[in-house]
Specification:
The protein has 4 helices and 6 strands; from the N terminus they run αββββββααα. By secondary structure, it is of the alpha+beta class.
Length: about 160
């Protein structure tokens, strides 16, 4: 009955980590900077983050990060007092607006000349729009939780592990 296991689908793999950067590696690709960060823990976990901004991280920075696997989604840098909340919300709002406009476009196409092909694209756009809206609401909750964390609470999180 292994095929009936829904653990990988129903349970998110997002985790909150608090770590100090032991070393960093930056790979510049056109406009995107690909950061590889190694933590100063016993297991020395390695995380990756892609950004348009330069010099986001330095060695010995204390980072509170929400990661999906080994990729950092949201972070709060206590040393430099920076985060990526606004840029991440902006990109999600742009995606949501694009899907909304695409849904409106296919709605007008279906109303003007009805065909099942256009109806299929309308349903796909509406489905992606609703999934993106749910994802945005979950990310807003994550951002609110990360904003409430201060340095002492984050250190307690690391000590509990």
């Amino acid at each position: 009955m292994e095929f009936m296991n829904f653990k990988n689908i129903l349970y998110p793999k997002d985790r909150v980590h608090f770590f100090t950067i032991k070393r960093k590696n930056v790979l510049k690709l056109l406009f995107i900077n690909d950061y590889t960060l190694a933590s100063q823990s016993q297991s020395e976990e390695i995380f990756s983050y892609k950004s348009l901004e330069e010099d986001l991280f330095q060695e010995n920075d204390e980072i509170l990060a929400l990661s999906h696997g080994k990729k950092i989604i949201l972070f709060k840098n206590f040393t430099q007092n920076t985060n990526n909340f606004k840029s991440f919300l902006l990109s999600q709002f742009i995606l949501l607006m694009f899907l909304f406009v695409a849904s409106l476009f296919f709605l007008f196409v279906v109303l003007n000349s009805f065909s099942f092909f256009d109806l299929f694209f309308l349903l796909v756009c509406l489905m992606l729009f609703s999934i993106s809206f749910i994802n945005l609401s979950i990310l807003i909750k994550h951002i609110c939780l990360l904003k409430k964390f201060d340095k002492e609470k984050a250190k307690n999180l690391r000590n509990e592990k």
